[in-house]
Amino acid sequence: MKLIAQVKLQPSKEQVELLLQTMQRFNEACDFISQQAWDARQFRRVGLQKLTYYDVKAMFGLGAQSAIHAIYKVADAYKLNKKVKRAFRPLGSISYDERILAWRLSDNTINIWTIAGRERMAFVCGERQRKLLEAFDGQADLLYRNGEFYLHQVCNVDDEVEGDPDGFLGVDLGIANIAVDSDNTIHQGKTMKSVRYRHRELRRKLQAKGTKASRRRLKKLVGYERRFATWTNHNISKVIVAKAKDTARGIAIEDLGGIRDRITARKPQRATLSSWSFHQLRTFIEYKAKQSGVKVVAVDPRNTSRTCPCCGHVDKAGALWARKTQDKFLCVDCGYSGLADYIAAVNIRERGRALLSVPYIPTIATDLRL
Q: 291: Cβ–Cβ under 8 A, 6 or more apart, which residues?
């Protein structure tokens, strides 16, 4: 499995200017390559290399390997859509490989290529990142964010061998509650919703002002909400995977691919729905589970919150009508009631168990079948 180790560079003032100039020169080369690709309608890596390689080296002062990376960056940008000419931000990321970037973990320094030659500079990182860097492999990306330089290095991590699970921990993903598991552990989304609402309102007010000060403030706010959501999802996924591993269970989770195309929402709910980072949370759960040797299965999410786990009755209209509130489930057939997200998590657990024919083993005293 490949993971990304993020480290923060600590360049001197002269090195800061040198890195900024290198990024600008690299992205100017990317714009030139993009124009040539657009004019010649040549978007493949090999064709672009034949078309622009020597011109890029001569015109922009890039080294051989950096010129190749610029060509590859343009070719990758056109893979998504060849109907629009691609343009690149002046301080967009630069990719490096082992030929133009060397790590020295012994003294926390790197040797990195710039337009003025190789430069040695210090970096800082946490213990987890340092452990990942011991198995670095492949490309690294240099990014400039909020006045700081970061390197994102691809690293190889060995997966733990998956064992046969004794059961499954069902996980229901949502908005009001970010995640609820079949042990009735609730990870609430109130804080996330309040942060998103506060920043949405603040952006609206600052954009309406249109002053220089408001634009500076908007620039500082960029990415805060995204980073907070990422931090929250990391914590939730860590707790879920640790619980599954400690109880020798797998994790059953909903397959929510394409859900935004399948559902409709009222206008006040659209902003919340579009910022819902359930895919990121699922990705975090999956890669953490691989590291821990925990099996993850994706199940069909249809009617998981409308199926009674006691009698199996499904009544779309009746179940909705019988709910006193949206988060409360009430079976119109047997009368069982409970938190709708918990009911869904139990149904997801049972679908995961049925998918792999895992014998039923109760996990908690409050299990519905006890």
A: 1, 157, 159, 160
| Residue written as token pair 């480290």 | 7
Tokens representing 320? 């909705």
CA dist., res. 301 & res. 214, Å (int):
43
Main-chain phi, psi angles of 198, to 5 degrees: -65, -45
In the chain, where the domains are located: 2-156, 168-356
- Cβ-based burial of 193 (10 A; exposed 0-12, middle 13-18, buried ≥19): middle
| Cα dist from 305 to 119, 333, 346, whole Å | 58, 15, 9
Query: Mean pLDDT, to the nearest integer, of 246-268?
Result: 70
pTM (global) more than 0.90: no
CATH of domain 168-356: 3.30.420
284-293 per-position pLDDT tens digit = 999 899 888 8
The per-residue pLDDT for range 45-89, each reduced to its tens digit, is 999 999 999 999 999 999 999 999 999 999 999 998 899 999 999
CA distance 41 to 179: 47
Which uninterrupted H or E stretch holds 258?
Answer: none
